Request: fold
Amino acid sequence: MENGAAQPVIVAIDGPSGTGKSSTSKAVAAQLGLSYLDTGAQYRAITWWMVNNGIDTDDPSAIAAVAGKPEIVSGTDPASPTITVDGVDVAGPIREQDVTSKVSAVSAVPEVRARITELQRSIAASAVTGIVVEGRDIGTTVLPDADLKIFLTASPEARAARRSGELKGADVNATREALAKRDAADSSRKTSPLAKAGDAVEVDTTDLTLPQVIECVVTLVEEKRAGK
Reply:
């Protein structure tokens, strides 16, 4: 396929944890010659900064007061996405439990969402060939005019099993409980909750292999590009 001749396309992929968002989004972007943005990493990055600077993550006003301070830069190459905060590579630290346990609270603060949403829109607008943007509120809030919106789902059991595998030996039941807690927090927050856009295509990944999910999404993107 001649990617250079294709029209730029903005693809929004939303869904809860454990549905295959990141793996699918990176692979689709790489296969189609598009940029890739992991928006969750940006929220983790600003959470890492809050923790690292001693900000009380249980105090929304304290978080709001400094939401504009950290400089967050996301590399959009799907083969090697990067993320830095004030010039520091935080790709590893943002995945640690201390950040994971606090990211929902930090992400729920309106000033944080406004700051990160502005950053995400800027990155998407500057993607020359197009971009795959994955997150929880991309199709509904960040990029409501995206060319294609996809919402990935999976059963609680499948999601817990996948996430436990990623966490290398974590207890599946504990992981399932943690995912349910995160879902509740993300779906109930007042600002940009996790939700499926009305015009999104829902893909249930429960019984699909990763290659099958990737193939499905690539087909949807190619059909959109072809004007079908």
